[in-house]
Design brief:
Blueprint: H1 2-16, H2 30-33, H3 36-39, E1 44-45, E2 48-49, H4 51-59, E3 62-66, E4 72-76, H5 79-86, E5 92-93, H6 121-129, H7 135-138, H8 142-157, E6 163-164, H9 165-170, H10 172-182, H11 186-204, H12 213-216, H13 218-229, H14 235-243, H15 249-280, H16 282-288, H17 292-306, E7 315-317, E8 321-323, E9 326-328, E10 333-336, H18 338-341, H19 376-393, E11 398-399, E12 421-423
Parallel strand pairs: 4-10
Antiparallel strand pairs: 1-2, 3-4, 5-7, 6-12, 7-10, 8-9, 11-12
Cofactor: heme
GO molecular function, one term: heme binding
InterPro entries: Cyt_P450, Cyt_P450_B, Cyt_P450_CS, Cyt_P450_sf
Length: about 425
């Protein structure tokens, strides 16, 4: 277990460029390096973006952002402008190579996968993955998701005193679901989930030293190797059986990394923050207790309102262009605030409020364009299953601490709670 744990410590740092080993760049120190205005998109006031984000959006939906290292950057806060940037794949690059050489980033830290890839590489890899994320293929997971949710609720019911809904509910549901999706063998699942937990614990601490980047891929590559030898019925096994000659182990590991990190932290944060919304909004409780359509509206509004992935992957302008009346020069960095865009009044009335009965909007919680989250439907399946089961099983669910005692992440690309103590009986 110790060696696996050290591998994932390196993997976490590589995947998010969040923190690096002593040889690299430490983003723990970013708060002292970056100007306050550059940190605003990653901060919140409870569940809401900080007020300055709305002010920026009203004044200039695309505005200059102060960044160090001589970077010329723009922050997009408007909904229309965000869609224009995210949908313009031909004019912007998301390739990891754009980051190499900046702030100590090196080429071997490339996590692979879809997020930091441009066409034609992105097109080829997404074409391989897309069939595995259709509703028809994903429907096979429905019984297992229901079992996972029930198992977690059963365990919570046996706990005396306060329960941390984050550790007992929000984290294990997506963790075990992704194990099922990828086809991780049963003998690896316990370690797999513990590694996922360690990953989150690190973000709550300070001064964590992450291992070498070369170690970070070893764990996933080991899983890929097992699947090569004996392909299972999960995503990795299906890709190997249907496209084994078209994709190498490194690419497969990168795709697995993207599925895990893209579908774990985001869904876990949604489950915890969404539970908090339920605890303070009786109309939301009523919606979740309603029919499938009511649950659907609740989940879509929750996705918009929370938008836990606060920022899209950085875009690098490949040419001079004009968007929203603003001139963007070739080489400029464009950062899109998804959370600000999803509160834009252009989407509807009173977008800063949560309304469980609101008709679904064309929100950007899963981003937009070629980099829209490929696992969006899987996330929706988990949310639509978990929330009704939670409130049905524990009708007296309530916070175990005063609301002001809750600890939220201070500066984070993926927003969330550190813990959520509740009483279930």
């Amino acid at each position: 277990m110790g060696s696996l744990r050290s591998r994932v410590l390196g993997w976490v740092g590589r995947r998010y460029l969040a923190r690096q080993s002593k040889k690299g760049f430490d983003l723990e120190k970013m708060s002292s390096i970056l100007p306050e205005s550059a940190l605003l998109p990653l901060k919140r006031d409870g569940l809401d973006p900080v007020p300055e984000m709305a002010a920026r959006r009203a004044e200039a939906p695309i505005g200059k952002l102060d960044l160090p290292f001589g970077m010329n950057a723009w922050l997009v806060t408007g909904y229309d402008e965000a869609k224009a940037v995210l949908g313009r794949a031909s004019g912007f690059s998301s390739d990891f190579g754009n980051l190499v050489g900046n702030a100590g980033v090196t080429a071997d830290q490339n996590p692979g996968g879809l997020g930091f890839a441009d066409p034609p590489v992105h097109t080829r890899l997404r074409k391989l993955l897309t069939p595995e994320f259709t509703m028809r293929r994903l429907s096979r997971l429905t019984p297992r998701i229901e079992e996972i949710v029930t198992e977690q609720l059963d365990a919570m019911a046996k706990t005396e005193g306060p329960v941390d809904l984050w550790q007992a509910f929000a984290l294990p549901i997506p963790s075990l679901t992704i194990c099922e999706l990828l086809g991780v063998s049963y003998e690896d699942r316990a370690d797999f989930q513990r590694l996922s937990t360690a990953r989150f614990d690190l973000f709550g601490g300070a001064g964590a030293s992450l291992g070498a980047m070369s170690e970070s891929l070893t764990y996933l590559l080991d899983i890929v190797k097992k699947q090569r030898e004996q392909p299972g019925d999960g995503l990795l096994g299906m890709l190997i059986k249907e496209h084994g000659d078209e994709i190498d182990d490194r690419e497969l590991a990168g795709l697995a990394d993207g599925v895990l990190t893209g579908g774990l932290e985001t869904t876990a944060s949604m489950l915890a923050l969404g539970a908090l919304v339920l605890l303070r909004d009786e109309k939301a409780m009523e919606a979740v207790r309603g029919d499938a359509e009511s649950v659907h509206r609740f989940v879509e509004e929750l996705l918009r309102y929370l938008t836990v992935v606060q920022m899209a992957f950085p875009r690098f302008a490949k040419e001079d262009m004009e968007i929203g009346g603003v001139h963007i020069a070739e080489g400029d960095i464009v950062l899109v605030s998804l959370s600000a865009a999803d509160r834009d009044p252009k989407l509807g009335r009173e977008m800063d409020k949560f309304d469980a009965t609101r008709e679904p909007t064309s929100h950007l919680a899963f981003s937009y364009g070629i980099h829209r989250c490929i696992g969006a439907e899987l996330a929706r399946m988990e949310l639509r299953t978990a929330y009704p089961a939670l409130v049905s099983r524990f009708p007296n669910l309530r916070l175990a601490v005063p609301p002001e005692k809750l600890s939220f992440r201070k500066v984070s690309i993926v927003y969330g709670l550190d813990e959520l103590p509740v009483l279930v009986n």
